[in-house]
Amino acid sequence: MILFTKLFLAHLIGDFLLQPNKWVVHKEANKIRSRYLYLHVLVHFIVAMLLLWDLDMWKWVLIITVFHYIIDALKLYANPYFKNKAIPFFVDQVLHMIVLYCCAFHTNLLEQTQMLIKQIDWSLITAIVFVGYPASIIMAKLLEGMSQQIALDHKSLPNAGKYIGIIERLFVLVFIILGRWEAIGLLITAKSVFRFNDLKESNSRKLTEYILIGTLLSFGLAMITGIIYMWGQ
């Protein structure tokens, strides 16, 4: 596991800490003709070798570097086809992680993968998935009648409320699993403080009640999910 950790650290350093935005822009404009693409993969090779500090690993680091070049080059040509640039970015990172994983555990790849699969906590994954989009849809259905009576705020970011709800429910679930119930109170307080000015300026009783009901419902779903998960452990 320490080998994968070192390779992952080298990836983080090479892809984020030692890659200026100027390089990224130049690569996107010039694709494989960009000198910074080759400098970038060279940095990855050097950083990985320094962290591993083992000359016997140079072949595997070279394999990682070659695949890094191929994946990055493919991303550069795929980028224009995606309106949401986050998609090629995350696909790129996942592919890099797969390469690192395969190289780090090349001696026992099948056994290591089987062991990881057996260790998956499916109850936890189910809880995490539920407090995400399914909980958002459930809340939208429950609050549908009320939302029609609230004037839309066109200054709000698209789907901002939905994403805020998903993040806060994930925090609540984590706090329950860790047994830090007091942190949930702090989270509610923090959200109330941020919402105070909006409610004060709107001076709308309906909006206040709608936000209060939505907040309590969101926290309630997350808390119930967390309690059920802990009860099943």
From TrEMBL:
Keywords: Membrane, Transmembrane, Transmembrane helix. It comes from the Bacteria. The chain crosses the membrane at residues 36-53, 59-77, 89-110, 122-143, 170-190, 210-231. InterPro entries: Phage_phiKZ_Orf197 (IPR021737). This is DUF3307 domain-containing protein. It comes from Arenibacter aquaticus.
